[in-house]
Amino acid sequence: MANQTVVVLDFGGQYKELIARRVRECGVYSVIKPGNTDLDELRKLDPIGFILTGGPDSVYNDDAPRCSPELFNMGVPVLGICYGIQLMAYSCGGTIAPCKVSEYGRTNVTVDTSCVLFKGLEAKQVGLMSHTDQISVLPEGFISAAHTKNCPNAAIACDDRKLYGVQFHPEVENTPNGTEMIRNFLYQVCGAVGDYDISDYETLMIEQIRRQVGSERVILGLSGGVDSSVCAALLAKAIPGQLYCIFVDHGLMRKNEGDEVEAAFKDRALNFIRVNAEDRFLGKLAGVTEPEKKRKIIGEEFVRVFEEESRKLGDVKFLAQGTIYPDVVESGANKSANIKSHHNVGGLPKDMSFIGLVEPLRGLFKDEVRKLGRSLGLPDNIVNRQPFPGPGLAIRIIGDITKEKLEILRDADAIFRQEMEKSKVKADQYFAVLTNMRSVGVMGDFRTYDYVVALRAVQTTDFMTCRYAPVSHAVLSRTTSRIINEVQGVSRIVYDITGKPPATIEWE
Ligand code: XMP
Predict the structure, then answer these.
(1) 148: CA distance to ligand 1 center in Å?
(2) 171 catalytic, yes or no?
(3) How far is the CA of 292 from the centre of ligand 1 (A)?
(4) In CATH, which superfamily holds the domain spanning 5-189?
(5) Ligand 1 atom closest to the CA of 340, numbered from 1
(6) What are the pLDDT digits (tens) for 245-294?
(7) Does the domain made of 198-383 have the CATH classification 1.10.443.10?
(8) Which residues in 379-415 are b (16+ Cβ under 10 Å) and which e?
(9) pTM (two decimals)
């Protein structure tokens, strides 16, 4: 990128992406690099500043992640956050010690308003704290610029060397003025000019795509989800006529969804190809009840259909994917347990003979992808779509999948979504689940023995954790009455009030 760049150095904290996003929200391009990245490699990025993230270690641990102490002598401004402030202080000759009282959660912080980080802010602030160590002796040349009841060095500053640190987390919403503090660092210390916005990204990417693919053809697996849709729109603008979008309808979409995706794309100049593959998917899934097995079968079959279609197109040299920045960062750093194999239906078939991969959204966060989609003229119903799992309704039907169950779930789910859309409830994802349980009911004068449908609505920003949405009784009652009256085969409706953890958002 030709833009000014801030490098976020990752020391294992959970908020690295949030820091990078905040920087971009302030109009400055940011990238995340491992904390121990070689200084020569960092110099090549010509950064206007570094931000050191938090992390779970103590700087005195033998295997604690560290950057070269020379980083602090490069003359480039540095802001250390949480573990980052401790690493900065330690590397510059200060001392770190365990806190007498560890601080967790929203904490009152008194800041020195003459410090450039806090310019324009009141002295009384709230900051999210989460630490068991803190700076006990400041390095030479540093002053304390904030304190809390139990932490005398809640912020430190060395104006001469342009080194700053905060023990709290300015990147999270629980630090209400945190973005202002980051903005001060960027604009007052690093000399940011605010040269980054999404339209620059679009122009740069269009040039890059053209350079990369020349006059060759490009194939893209289009699911109708936000990422692949925005990728399609961008490619269509960059290389009109050269793009082929394959939409595999696996028969596990929501009500009318396949037709909606087709309607949204078929008239655009992206050679839209819809493959109706319901029978082969349902055939492979017949009798399968185990969630991971369902996912694997769907992933594999998707690749097979995609391969067949691309062979029909003949000699296509490039494959495009809607990979976004969190996918890139997570795939390098995610050592967490495999809870579910998330199958990204835009995934790369390994044995295909493409000479290049086109991933124009690799540098963007989800909210930026949505912004780009809007500026490319995609309709709101595509740009604001909720996440929908690649395996679709297969993982919202507990137990084996049949056409009859799919019909019941599609109808119940459509009613719930309509009622939610009419209501004012704030929920980030909502859907119905067909449990594998049947229960006794009574309709008219007859006994029924039909399915139990569960409704799920959650509030979340990152989809890594969530809480259930407080959907009103009125909405639940209307939904229940409509499902019972309009959908045959349902005898009972329940509302899922579990958060994540301990549950996950999807039931399988
Ligand atoms: P969980 O159920 O893991 O879901 O709490 C977190 C988010 O991911 C979506 N999800 C998936 N997305 N393929 C996907 O592309 C999958 O296999 C998959 N499983 C879950 C889910 O809808 C939620 O937004």
Answers:
(1) 40
(2) yes
(3) 13
(4) Class I glutamine amidotransferase (GATase) domain (3.40.50.880)
(5) 3
(6) 999 999 999 999 999 999 989 988 899 999 999 999 999 999 999 999 99
(7) no
(8) eeebbeeeebbbbbbbbbbbbebeeebbebbbbbbbb
(9) 0.74
